[in-house]
């Protein structure tokens, strides 16, 4: 991973991601706490509503208690002709005592009472109307007596029994109102006379729900009264009256005493459902609050949070593209130039721009390269001087060696009075010295071959009938460049050491060819050859001290003339001039002869092909 990606990853990992995790953690904590806090709020609301509903019930119970105490209902049931009596005429008002008149006024003027009637325990008598109601047919006493409700009212022995809408529509009708039913007894004798049925107008309950609903209903909350069987008894919005709450909820609700709240799907939407059981009644107050309206603020916060995080991320990307790209880009450029330096381009320089530390870094790189170039120049100069000195020493090693052998041959001829041969050999020696004393280190292969022919002719004068030679060099290679005095030491090795003491005519073959961009020159002879121990002394490409160490370890006597003045000199010169990939390769067997192969690059006019 490059530096730019590391910086961007660090920015994401240390800033953006922690902020994102913190935001998500805060969101989920707040999101989950909404249900708990609203559940507490809903509990207070439902308790307040239940308190108001119970007050309405208690108020109506107080009214009917007053009627029982003043014997108004008993008088109606005991009247000879209760259906023809006019309870509100002035004559009757005069015959009532003050308490009865007060109750009459309260009963007829009470705004909540919708209708009322009395059942007489005599089955033959129809219900006695107190308040009539249009389009309402009272349930016959005989049918009412056969219902379980009748037994329950009688067992309550005067305690009011309240019916919610839709619980007993045969008796109360279809209007969404609450109905009180209670037993009427004679106050003095406690004899059971009949049953009172009083219905309360629905607007009393609507007013309660309207006043206790959350202001402006910003939480989209609806209330309803549900019995323990799940039947919706009263819905202020009149949309679900008489239906079962299970039609709107997939979750089964177990109505129990106390308060419970949970999140559930209601009418296809996520809602908070809160249930509060009314004390002493089989009814439950239920509030349904849209979860979306509750979580709207948190959701809005989450949206803004993601918007801000998106802006931060975009800012980070822009920062990465502009600022960090400049930093990493400059570093990448410097790294690229350093790789160019590794490949050998010491003239690579970075453009110096900017006014910060990146400029100092670029200047530092350029200054370092200038110093390295200066050091390399100094080293090259010293190395060139060293190489020239080595070349001069190596050439100096060859010249005395060759002169010594040639002069020795001329001396022998002079002693033998071979004047013509002496003259020929002096001419050949002059030709060789003319090439040797030239200032050029490299000559053409053609010149080297002429030099070699002069040397071989001199040796033929000396060792007549000892060997023959053959030179096979293609004309297209004659212009190739080669270090002067390269082939003569190789041929000299064959003559001096390969043909020494042989009983047959030796031969030397010099051939050349082109292969893989190199000039291959081979010198072959059929001389005595060398043993493996002798071959081990010709590891020309290793340092001198290593060769001496190996020879000492093997207890071999190294021929210093052969190594120092012959093949070793040629191999070292080639290595110094062309590099370690070029040099001599020797193959020999005893008996069988020796093959020396010289590998040099093809160069014409000083330029390598």
Descriptive overview:
It is built from 18 helices and 19 strands. Helix 1 (3-69) runs antiparallel to helix 10 (296-342) and helix 11 (357-415) packs parallel to helix 13. The strands form five sheets. It has a five-stranded antiparallel beta sheet. A five-stranded antiparallel beta sheet has the order 7-6-10-9-8. A five-stranded mixed beta sheet has the order 12-14-15-17-16. With 609 residues, it is of the alpha+beta class.
Tell me the total number of β-strands: 19
Q: Between the first and last Cα atoms, what is the distance in angstroms?
A: 42 Å
Helix content: 40-55%
Secondary-structure content class: alpha+beta
- Major sheet, described briefly? 5 strands, antiparallel
How many helices? The count is 18
User: What is the overall pLDDT average?
Assistant: 78
Low-confidence stretches: 85-94, 551-564
Strand content: 15-25%
How would you sum up the global shape?
rod-shaped
Which key features would you list for this structure?
609 residues; alpha+beta; five-stranded antiparallel β-sheet; 18 helices
In short:
With 609 residues, this protein is α+β, with helices and mostly antiparallel strands.
């Amino acid at each position: 991973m490059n530096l730019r990606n590391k910086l961007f990853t660090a920015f994401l990992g240390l800033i953006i991601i922690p902020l994102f995790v913190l935001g998500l953690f805060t969101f989920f904590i707040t999101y989950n706490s909404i249900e708990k806090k609203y559940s507490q709020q809903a509990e207070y609301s439902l308790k307040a509503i239940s308190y108001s509903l119970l007050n309405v019930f208690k108020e109506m119970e107080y009214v009917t208690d007053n009627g029982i105490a003043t014997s108004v209902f008993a008088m109606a049931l005991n009247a000879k002709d209760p259906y023809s009596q006019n309870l509100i005429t002035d004559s009757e008002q005069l015959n009532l005592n003050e308490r009865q008149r007060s109750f009459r006024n309260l009963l007829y003027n009470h705004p909540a009472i919708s209708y009322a009637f009395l059942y007489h325990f005599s089955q033959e008598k129809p219900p006695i109307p107190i308040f009539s109601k249009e389009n309402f047919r009272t349930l016959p006493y005989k049918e009412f007596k056969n219902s379980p409700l009748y037994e329950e009212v009688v067992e309550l022995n005067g305690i009011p029994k309240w019916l919610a809408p839709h619980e007993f529509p045969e008796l109360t009708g279809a209007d969404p109102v609450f109905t009180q039913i209670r037993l009427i007894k004679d106050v003095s004798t406690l004899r059971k006379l009949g049953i009172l049925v009083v219905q309360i107008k629905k607007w009393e309950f609507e007013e309660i729900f309207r006043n206790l609903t959350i202001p402006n209903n910003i939480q989209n909350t609806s209330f309803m009264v549900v019995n323990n069987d799940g039947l919706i008894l009263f819905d202020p919005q009149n949309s679900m009256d008489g239906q079962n709450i299970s039609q709107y909820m997939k979750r089964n609700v177990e109505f129990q005493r106390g308060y419970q709240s949970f999140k559930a799907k209601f009418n296809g939407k996520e809602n908070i459902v809160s249930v509060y059981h009314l004390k002493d009644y089989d009814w439950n107050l239920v509030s349904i609050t849209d979860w979306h309206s509750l979580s709207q603020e948190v959701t809005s916060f989450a949206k803004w949070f993601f918007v801000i995080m998106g802006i931060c991320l975009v800012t980070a990307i822009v920062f990465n593209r502009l600022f960090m790209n400049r930093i990493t880009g400059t570093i990448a450029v410097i790294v690229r130039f350093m790789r160019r330096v590794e490949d050998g381009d010491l003239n690579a320089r970075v453009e110096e721009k900017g006014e910060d530390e990146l400029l100092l870094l670029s200047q530092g790189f350029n200054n370092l390269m200038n110093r390295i170039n200066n050091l390399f120049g100094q080293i090259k100069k010293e190395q060139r001087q060293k190489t020239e000195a080595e070349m001069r020493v190596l050439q100096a090693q060859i010249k005395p060696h060759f002169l010594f052998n040639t002069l020795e041959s001329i001396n022998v001829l002079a002693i033998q009075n071979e004047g013509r041969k002496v003259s020929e050999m002096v001419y050949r020696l002059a030709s060789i010295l003319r090439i040797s004393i030239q200032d050029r280190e490299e000559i053409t292969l053609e010149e080297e071959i002429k030099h070699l022919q002069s040397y071989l002719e001199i040796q033929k004068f000396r060792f007549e009938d000892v060997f023959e030679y053959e030179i096979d060099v293609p004309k297209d290679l004659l212009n190739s460049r080669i270090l002067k005095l390269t082939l003569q030491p190789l041929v000299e090795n064959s003559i001096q050491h390969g043909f020494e003491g042989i009983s047959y005519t030796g031969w030397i073959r010099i051939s050349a060819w082109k292969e893989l961009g190199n000039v291959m020159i081979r010198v072959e002879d059929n001389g005595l050859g060398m043993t493996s121990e002798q071959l081990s002394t010709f590891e020309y490409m290793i340092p001198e001290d290593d060769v001496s160490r190996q020879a000492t370890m093997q207890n071999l006597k190294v021929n210093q003339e052969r190594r120092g003045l012959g093949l070793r000199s040629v191999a070292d010169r080639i290595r110094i001039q062309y590099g370690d990939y070029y040099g001599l390769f020797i193959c020999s067997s005893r008996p069988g002869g020796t093959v020396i192969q010289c590998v040099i690059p093809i160069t014409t006019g000083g330029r390598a092909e």
